[in-house]
Amino acid sequence: xxxxxxxxxxxxxxxxxxxxxxxxxxxxxxxxxxxxxxxxxxxxxxxxxxxxxxxxxxxxxxxxxxxxxxxxxxxxxxxxxxxxxxxxxxxxxxxxxxxxxxxxxxxxxxxxxxxxxxxxxxxxxxxxxxxxxxxxxxxxxxxxxxxxxxxxxxxxxxxxxxxxxxxxxxxxxxxxxxxxxxxxxxxxxxxxxxxxxxxxxxxxxxxxxxxxxxxx
Length: 216
Prior knowledge:
Elements: H1 3-25, E1 34-39, E2 42-45, E3 61-63, H2 79-88, E4 94-98, H3 101-108, E5 130-131, H4 139-148, E6 154-157, E7 161-166, H5 169-189, H6 200-215
Helix pairs in contact: 2-4, 3-5
């Protein structure tokens, strides 16, 4: 097996295992959500309409930056979300889109996740925004998503779900899990009243602390 083919095989296996993890962790159900990784000038992405439980590495589809593909299997219907991120964020090496329940609950209310907890900073700002609604798979949706991702690495999609990206697949999956946990904690915190939000100054201190933590 040539080196390029070996790399593609390894990345495809990682995508499949990650898709199965999304199901087992409750971040996705059935065939909902999708995962991709940057692969040279192309993208490897989970296929359309395939249950994660039966997915194999040969099901993973290679597409170019415009969504064109030569495989028999179709890429995820949300491929535009993925290609838009790779085109606009050079640090993005993996993208994860989930339909995790608590984050979807907030997205259906079209509400962002504010700085009620310092871990909101994992998305890069003082809030995790909610992008405007558009039909799934549409170019309009990808444009709304990009607006919500300005200076961010995660956002909610109105009446839909979550999109995150990372420097590798592990980071992207971790970030997707954190967004879901934050959404759950935020909704729980409202049961006893309105949570007290951290100030911009307090969040700035968190960013400094995060930077120092990464250096250690």
